[in-house]
Specification:
This protein has four helices and twelve strands, in the order E-H-E-E-E-E-H-E-E-E-E-E-E-H-E-H.
């Protein structure tokens, strides 16, 4: 799954990539976005594509229980997104794309889980297939606009550390996804050469540090046996 990601692009970069149909606004870089955090999401508007803020945890319109009982809906699996009740209406009617500068994934190691930062090989923006929905909170009398990103099986490159990855779209397939002209056939792993990754600080695992750019800086990682070998060599 994808449970943390970054959004650290400029408005100019977004406008150039998606040809946005709205006035410019200031964007605050986020280096550790967690589920339920606000995120930038691109949807189709009457005059073109728009960037709107949404809560990263899709809530279907029919949900009537307290939010604390909502299951993990920040990711939707490509294999079941068209049929699963939580996501099927959004798959048919309200699709979106979620721009990201990169995302984090954790590799299980003997000494614990090691986070890696994964980002485009060419330094561009990741365009992640997503879904969105409006949900009316009848207790607080407010409407929440929420979203989920779609994940699929990992390609060989990402498979070295994890078995899932977000669905990444190019500009042409993003248009087809948003318009509904294409669907499940787009929800496949990205090419192996589309991404690069490196290990980062385990501080990523703690929420509340989204303003810290040092989270994406590479760190050296060695197993206990590797560390002992390096110690002996030095």
């Amino acid at each position: 799954m994808c449970g943390r990601f970054t959004q650290k692009y400029t408005w100019e970069e977004l406008h150039r990539l998606y040809r946005l149909a709205q006035p410019a606004r200031n964007l605050r870089p986020r280096y550790n976005t967690c589920p339920t955090d606000p995120v930038d999401v691109v949807i189709r508007g009457d005059g073109g594509l728009l960037v709107v803020p949404m809560r990263w945890q899709l809530i279907p319109p029919w949900w009537k229980k307290p939010l604390k009982e909502l299951p993990a809906t920040f990711n939707a699996r490509a294999e079941s997104v068209a049929e699963k009740p939580m996501f099927r209406d959004a798959f048919r009617r309200t699709r979106c794309i979620i721009p990201a500068s990169g995302y984090y994934e954790w590799q299980t190691r003997p000494d614990g889980k090691q986070p890696h930062y994964i980002t485009p090989a060419d330094g561009s923006i990741l365009t992640i297939a997503g879904l969105w929905s409006d949900w009316r909170d009848r207790v607080n009398e407010e409407t929440l606009t929420t979203c989920a990103m779609i994940i699929t099986e990992a390609n060989s490159f990402i498979g070295a550390i994890h078995d899932r990855m977000p669905v990444l779209l190019d500009r042409e397939s993003a248009d087809a996804w948003l318009s509904g002209d294409a669907g499940l056939e787009l929800l496949k792993p990205a090419p192996d050469d589309a991404l690069r990754m490196w290990p980062v600080s385990r501080r990523v695992s703690k929420p509340g540090n989204g303003d810290d750019p040092s989270l994406i800086e590479p760190v050296s990682v060695h197993s206990a046996a590797e560390a002992a070998t390096l110690f002996r060599l030095n």
